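Lab meeting notes turned into a lecture example. A postdoc, R.K., suggested we walk through two folding results consecutively so the class can see how the record format repeats. The first protein's sequence and structure tokens come next.
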Amino acid sequence: MGKELKITKEMVIEDIIQKYPKTTFVFLDYGLHCIGCPLAQDETIEEAVKVHQINLQKLLEDLNKATNNKQKL
């Protein structure tokens, strides 16, 4: 039985957007206009929320909802 994939605070924003394109809209809704930003190449979600003063847990919940968490490892 596989473990569900989940977006975590340690993940790099650009990697998330590439793997889960639907998350782009979540980032935009939170004011994280990371698409195309050079910092997104190496910036984790945790680093971004600190700079933008965003609720980390809520963002993670919304990002994971956008992925539908149906893919398995």
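The second example is placed directly after the first for contrast:
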Amino acid sequence: MTHAAGLLPGTSPGSEPVRVPAAHGGRRSAALVARSLFALTKPRIIELLLVTTLPTMLLAQRGLPPAWLMAATLAGGALAAGSANTLNCFIDRDIDALMRRTSRRPLAATGAKAVIKPGEALVSGIVLGAASTVLLGMTVNWLAAALADGAILFYVFVYTLGLKRRTASNIVIGGAAGCFPVLVGWAAVTGRVSLAAVVLFAVIFFWTPPHFWALAMKFRDDYAAAGVPMLPVVAPAPVVTRKILMYSYAMVAATLALVPYAGWLYGCCAAGLGAWFLAGAHRLRARVAAGDTRAEHQASNQAAIRLFHQSIAYLTLLFAVVAVTALLPWGR
């Protein structure tokens, strides 16, 4: 409840917030302010978080949960993610202005070009979090609400304030914030958190570093300029790709640990998708090992972005398989 992110902590070219025009002469329309506040929620990241929540609910139900429960859980989860992302933009507005990839976010603008004020964004983030708590607590259950609140607090205080600017392990530990939606979805259906939900948490936890480090390899200079010690900034590319490969294998192992609960059909699909992703991770490592020329560096960046996009497709397909097999009794 990242940048899923990424997914999760962080953002990506495919998950950047909606672009909004700058204010002219200090004039701000209500529509422009609303669009700017919406952009701060990073709606494309929220989409990916919801992709993991709904299939988890289907698996917990072993079928289709009531429509009202799905709607309330997804709405509450979206509000919680929007709160966390808005507060992240509020805190990181200084470094967002230094990075080309994020310099067009609403809070990165200053002076006459600024559409909203930092205080307005802070209030918006708090209100979204409160709305999520009330909605989930009153319509779903208070465990789901507490887990959503935990995700917000973890993303804001542990990742954004505590780790992001201090350690290269920021995305490894902080990435746990993006794993909470599966716990929220499971708790919404069952009222508790079971071992299967913890396994799904682990899948996303191990998925996050390969996903985000691949992106950070491409935008290494941006992070270096902002003084953010992402792994590709502080470690050579061969070390980064070795760790990407290590976490990729751990991720695939975690997906297979769900087989006893999700069934043989899921297991076959998870194994195939895992082999596909591992092949991409190995290709990136081989490309980085090929040489240090400028051309090879550019090729490595291209391979890193391909793996980043592949990671999004992989997670989407994996959870689609979770959803489909949960609805097919004969696949268990």
